[in-house]
């Protein structure tokens, strides 16, 4: 598919998911403040990404 970048967003307080994504090679690019509103509360989200060169280094 020749992708250059793959990214995801995860809730800032979801430690288990962040740990798993970091183990898979993703790194935090930034914080999205008050990004989602659920059950009368705003949540910060983290944007995590991996570039193709990181993927090649990580998995080869």
From TrEMBL:
This is N-acetyltransferase domain-containing protein. SUPFAM superfamilies: Acyl-CoA N-acyltransferases (Nat) (SSF55729). The lineage of its organism: Bacteria, Candidatus Falkowiibacteriota. InterPro entries: Acyl_CoA_acyltransferase.
């Amino acid at each position: 598919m020749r992708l250059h970048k793959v990214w995801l967003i995860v809730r800032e307080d979801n430690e288990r998911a962040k740990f798993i994504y970091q183990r898979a090679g993703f790194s935090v690019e930034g914080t999205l403040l008050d990004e989602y509103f659920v059950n009368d509360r705003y949540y910060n989200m983290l944007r995590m990404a991996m570039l193709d060169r990181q993927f090649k280094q990580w998995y080869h």
